[in-house]
Amino acid sequence: MKRRIAFFTGLLLLAVIHTRAQELITTPSQTGDFPVYNGMRTAPIWVDTNDYFVVRKAARLLAGDINRVTDHQPSVEHALSHPPKNLIIIGTLDSSSAIRKLVADKKLNTDRLKNKWEAYQIQVVNNPFPGIEKALVIVGSDRRGAAYGVFTLSKQMGVSPWYWWADVPVKKKAKVYVKAGTYYYGPPAVKYRGLFINDEAPALSGWVHEKFGGFNHQFYEKVFELLLRLRANYLWPAMWGNAFNNDDTLNPIMASNDAIVMGTSHQEPMNQATEHWRRQHAGAWNYQTNDSVLRAFWRKGIENMDHRETIVTIGMRGDGDKPMSEKSNIALLENIVRDQRKIIERVTGKPASETPQDWALYKEVQEYYDKGMRVPDDVTLLFSDDNWGNIRRLPFLRDSTRPGGFGIYYHFDYVGDPRNYKWLNTNQISRVYEQMHLAYQYHARRIWIVNVGDIKPMEFPISFFMDYAFDADRWPANRFSQYTLNWAKTQFGSRYAPEIADILEKYTRYNSRRKPELLSDDTYSLTHYQEADKIVAQYDAIYRKAKQIYDTLPSDYRAAFYQLVLFPVAACDNLNKLYVTTAKNHLYAQQGRAVTNLMADSVAKLFIKDSLLSHHYNKVLENGRWDHFMDQTHIGYTYWQQPPYNNMPAVKRIDVPQQSRIGIAVSGTDAWCLTRHSRLRCPGSIPGRSNLTRSRSSAGDSRPCLTRSVLTNHGSDFRPIPERPIQRLTFQ
Fold first, then answer.
1. What is residue 327's predicted lDDT score, i.e. its pLDDT?
2. pLDDT digits (tens, 9 = 90+) for 493-543
3. The CATH number of 194-476 is which of 3.20.20.520, 3.50.50.60, 3.40.30.10, 3.30.310.10?
4. Residues of 79-98 as b/e, b for ≥16 C-beta within 10 angstroms?
5. Positive or negative: CA dihedral 655, 661, 667, 669
6. What is the pLDDT of residue 689?
7. What is this structure's pTM?
8. Are 675 and 662 in contact, with CB atoms under 8 Å apart?
9. Helix intervals (H) in 562-595
């Protein structure tokens, strides 16, 4: 009985810790709460000089975050000759002398952190050391755990992970207290959680070269900080014309210092960039004809890896994201993998199984796996989606104990057949949840990596992907809708959060119907159930709501709201209007409507508006801070690849006769009629054609005419064709 009571008490304690962990910060303090800022002074921060670089960097960033929230900068200390009344202590279990002392004195219990991956604990400790009344202790099981603890505190104080990348304003506070208690987080649900910066031209590449001079360590420092604030740990770097390890030799060093695990994409084995191979002009990317040169190239990649945390991609695909050749066979690929693992062993001096590796089963590579190709069990099998968000294959549950485990390579952005999509966010997080939940349930939990294109404008789905990967159990299906609301609150506060969440949900749902790059003038029907007009009305409704919120937001929130909400809604609203207006122009030209030319003029205006929206984002918003991010072309696709520049859809113009005629269009059909001598002439087929009668015109020809029966059979919803004078109509 005692054991049972203890068991349920433990469950209750865990539930309390989990709930409290979401509510660290309080403004009205109670006895025992820790004053980060009491309205007069901030608590100093202490970190051991012998602790990891990223832990010391996180302490400095925390000091900056506290200053952003309170307008008071705390000091960062490494020695305490004059102990303060209150102190923030940051450290790891193995490298912080203060943490070890607190544990030895039994003032800090870290049993739940021992031997855990990226776990952390935030705790208010009374009388930690002589002369100090209270300490806020942030302790990590390892270096990333400690950094995540720091950024969890920052986020709850009011500093969004997107404060730099999306200009999200920091929420100012007159006082900041941390509630008394112990808060435990982790270990994460998925071990490696990362981004793939891909398809980065022209948007990201244009911005990076303008602002940083290239994909150098100054740029990647901003990426690494974002990853840490999102509690991510893994990166496939930009690879369109870029070579991470070679473009700036400080790139891999900074990644290691910032505790980011590096990898290379599915087509770049052995820690070497495709671009680096191209620059060397070392011959064909063909293992059958150039194997010795390739082995030397791969050996150099493993040598460059040094001691830094890396997941080595193994296998081989053809150059340019293509299969090696139609004649490639499983025996050849298995031989390539064997040779690669021999290189890993020789360079590292360790069994290959001690170096993390992945084999990306992307596109044609999954076919090799399906046909029986296998790699050693210590290699992570990285399954993929179909480039459109549908995971192609999951592991068998019986294989869940496989040493290398399984992972997922997912897409928020794609370049390739049948059509690119890379301009704006078109990813419903409900769909992402459904797919990644399946992956999690089937134990694909070693690596989750998502292709995010240019990073911006994928801020919202990136946030969800990383939050779910870290704590999947926090977001069951019955709580899923709360995520969008919480995210809106984090970026914009509580006042408009429900309305913003509704807009985010709707515009991603609308974009998921047909991605912007796949739209054309015949995507939606003008006649069937008023589909096209309803689509436009739906976009227009959320645009008007977004614009209304934008106009009433405090000025410091508007730049972030424009990027994260208003621009994508306005741009997609305009784009759908553009194509629907083009469709009307074509139909009206066929019908001979006088409004045809006005529709053509409207198409031209909407096309210009698209460029003006992009211009505002690039050149006007925050004085050009995000210049080039909306350089991506998206109008005028003729095949899978993007057009070199946007092309206005073709329009038609007609010569409008001086003498007008009466016309009628029947809603819900493609039927339309023009009169001649008060007769309705119907050149097209009409549902219910048996109800047509024929009459003789003055020209002597016999033409089908709409009868009252045809009109009433369609709900009597018929209307004169606009812009034509209405006369009395007679029916046979």
1. 56
2. 999 999 999 999 999 999 999 999 999 999 999 999 899 999 999 999 999
3. 3.20.20.520
4. eeeeebebbbbbbbbebbeb
5. negative
6. 43
7. 0.91
8. yes
9. 567-591
Q: 339 with 300: CB under 8 angstroms?
A: no
Spell out the long-range contacts of 546-555 with Cβ–Cβ below 8 A and sequence spacing 24 or more: 546/503, 546/570, 549/496, 549/499, 549/500, 549/503, 553/492, 553/496
Closest CA to 226 of 186, 187, 260: 260
Q: CA-CA distances (angstroms) from residue 325 to 181, 210, 264, 297, 328?
A: 61, 38, 22, 21, 5
Mean pLDDT of 219-236: 98
Parts of the chain belonging to CATH 3.20.20.520: 194-476
Q: Extract the runs of DSSP E, i.e. beta strands, from 677-730.
A: 679-681, 693-696, 702-705, 718-720
Please write the tens of the pLDDT for every residue from 144-195. Answer: 999 999 999 999 999 999 999 999 999 999 999 999 999 999 999 999 999 9
Delimit the CATH 1.20.58.2150 region(s) of the chain: 497-624
- CA 401/CA 399 separation, integer angstroms: 6
Q: Which two tokens stand for residue 134?
A: 């209270």
Q: What is the Cβ-side half-sphere exposure of residue 426, based on CA atoms within 13 angstroms?
A: 23
Residue type, 672: W
d(C-alpha 91, C-alpha 87), whole Å: 13
Integer-rounded Cα Rg, in Å, for the chain is 31
- Find where tokens 């709930």 sit: 19
Which CATH fold would you assign to the domain 497-624? Methane Monooxygenase Hydroxylase; Chain G, domain 1 (1.20.58)
* Cα(709)–Cα(729) distance, integer angstroms: 14
Extract the tokens encoding 190.
């998925």
Tokens of 355: 């170096």
Angle between helices 497-513 and 567-591 (to 10 degrees): 40
Peptide bond into 161 cis (omega under 30): no
With contact defined as beta carbons under 8 Å apart, do 331 and 371 qualify?
no
Residue 21 tokens, joined: 């962990």
**CATH 3.90.1150.10 assigned to 2-185:** no
- Report whether 156 contacts 182 (CB < 8 A): no
Alpha-carbon distances, residue 236 vs 17, 240, 267, 291, 311 (angstroms)? 34, 12, 11, 25, 10
Alpha carbon distance 503, 496 (integer Å): 11
